[in-house]
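I am writing to request your help with a piece of structural work I have in hand. The matter concerns a single protein, recorded as an amino acid sequence and a row of backbone structure tokens. Could you please explain, in whatever detail you think fit, how the structure tokens follow from the sequence? Thank you for your consideration; the sequence and its tokens are set out here:
>
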Amino acid sequence: MPPRTRRHATPQRQLNEAAQLTDQLQAAGYTKRDIAHIINRDPSLVSQFYTKNKGAAFVPALTHVLTAVQAAGITDTTELAALAAPHITRRTTTSGTRARVRTKAVLITPTGTGTGRVAAQAIASGSARLRPLIAEAARQNLRLAFTVRLAKTGYLHASGSRTDSPGIRRDVIQRADHTEERSYGSATTGGFHATDFARRVDTAGGDVTAAVHQWLVETGRIHPGAHITHLEVRTWRPH
């Protein structure tokens, strides 16, 4: 009787980067049809990321979209499509490998609207992922506003005080943990020049948290020892 030969299982093929990014977007709640809408292609192409090793040309756009979802909390597929559009090219390689040149993820739509949010862990490291947003806003000469959250006792003025921007209570959110969110700047009031804040961030060695904290101290809004726990930056194009 001939000796039995052992069959070796065929190893599962490694997913290409487009498929891996698609998996992460699906884990975030988006369907293949949603993803196809975001990259302005047919859903069958998204399936071919898995079956035919396609999608290298969409890696920069998908990376940009995933960053927008995870870092900025953007969920609307139409807005994500607007973010993806400038990063989609028809160029690809026959092997399906990604291009060497990768576009950096900057979370600003063609209309100038951008949002970035960070919480405790990112705050501790200086809110580094907000720096590209502010730098790009400065490059485009946009306006910006921000919302900070810290202990109520950290503020120098009572909520709703006209000495402290915004001066109206609807832009103040009080939390159950004795912290309070206050917004500074808006499209109505004109906000702040992004170039000014980009300069402050550069002076602070890229530490966005420190730059915002210093501004709040310098303008007499918070105690020097106050600790920012959450930070959000918003941008827009002035009329």
Summary: The chain is about 35% helix and 15% strand.
